[in-house]
Amino acid sequence: MHIHFWPGSTAVVAGLMAPVKSARLLATGQEVKFEQDRLRVRFLNLPANAPDSPVTTIAVECQSEPKQDNELVRRERDRLQV
Length: 82
What we know:
The protein has one helix at about 70-75; strands spanning about 1-5, 10-15, 20-25, 35, 40-45, 55-60. By secondary structure, the chain is mainly beta. The strands form 2 sheets. It has a 3-stranded antiparallel β-sheet with strand order 1-6-3, with no helix packed on it. It has a 3-stranded antiparallel β-sheet with strand order 2-5-4, with no helix packed on it.
């Protein structure tokens, strides 16, 4: 996963259908903790500053070929009644 604008302590990928096995910062090898539910993966406790520039890469290992389904997210995500 390539991050162009460092998000702070958490980054999210929506619609990733493959279960994530592990994640690490490519520049440093530091393990990245994550939580995954059926609609998204949250990468947690990221460093305050990006470890490399201009783009940081989080190497994500999945149990199967990674596929993304944003239509599922649009259909299934709870919406505010606005």
